Amino acid sequence: MLCLDTRTAQVLNRLGLPEVRLITLPELESADPELLSVKSTRLPVEYFWTCGPALLLHVLQRDSQIPMITYLDSDQLFFSSLAPIYDELGDGSILIIEQRYLHREPGDHRFITRFNVGFLIFRRSAEGLACLKRWREQCLTWCHDRQEGTLYGDQGYLTEWPERYRGVVVLQHPGGGVAPWNLRNHPLTTVDGQVRVAGVPLILFHFSGLRRVHRWLYELHVWRYHHRRLNATVRRGIYAHYIRELARAERRLRQIDGFQRGGSYSRRSSAWRQARRALTNSQTSAPWIRWQRFMISLGPWVF
């Protein structure tokens, strides 16, 4: 697990999570001086993206016994077993997941890329290592939060992988890669308490853009893509469940000696002012549209 700041490393170290090996940013930069050399040319988020392939190579080079490595963005939650994803990879060298857009949203750079980097698998094979090394070099050369041709950040480079490398598997299981921008592609239901996508269990959901604008108020990025009422499965089975998990994690962190809750959530903050305007401005949208943009968390209740 890559810790991108000192406070994160300290807190996670105090948690003492079993089977978790923490890697600090200085450790990665020491192992890869070329990565550190481009730091001054990148915005923080751009540098974090640039770290991705360097981190994966660092782990594989440090431990020659690792046969396969999986990259995972931290704003995701597992809802069921990952076994179907690894079954689909089979003997392949690389697994990637398409964005699966229903439509393209003007002005959103993500829509120029075919694949999302939120979940990737690389096998320690000639093809897997060659892909990782080239991706690292490409990100060192260019990795920015803007569009240039077919590039955007670190994920525009993935477009060529299925044609360039043997053994690339593009995930077909509908339960992986579900995200705000493709929700309308997937019929979501709840069966016996389990969220299902097109009749099979939801495996992984990407909560991209979710933000906490006040202690009890969360803004759902999904409203930018899903312009209809969110059904009960999406609100209660997916988002409310995730917010409860965040609250459970926060309670655990509070028990750690010396941990202090980050963020003041001031009523003067720009995020809070924007949220308040969206909730109260009847000129902009119908009430159900305004409320599907937010969720309220009060103790064990989320609605």
Q: What is the compact description of this entry?
A:
With 303 residues, this protein is of the alpha+beta class.
Q: What is the alpha-carbon Rg in Å?
A: 20 Å
Structural class: alpha+beta
Tally of helical runs:
10
CA distance, first residue to last residue: 32 Å
Can you give the helix content as a percent range? 25-40%
Spatial strand order of the main sheet: 3-6-5-9
Most strands sheet: 4 strands, mixed
**Total number of strands:** 17
What do you see in this structure?
Helix 4 (44-62) packs antiparallel against helix 6 (126-141). This protein has 10 helices and 17 strands. A hairpin with a 2-residue loop joins strand 11 and strand 12 (200-201). The strands form 6 sheets. A 4-stranded mixed sheet has the order 3-6-5-9. Strands 14-15-16-17 form a 4-stranded antiparallel sheet. A 3-stranded antiparallel sheet has the order 10-11-12. With 303 residues, it is of the alpha+beta class. It has helices at 6-15, 25-31, 33-37, 44-62, 83-89, 126-141, 161-164, 232-254, 270-280, 287-292; strands spanning 2-3, 23-24, 68-72, 76-78, 94-98, 115-123, 147-148, 151-152, 168-170, 188-191, 194-197, 200-201, 204-206, 211-214, 217-219, 294-298, 301-302.
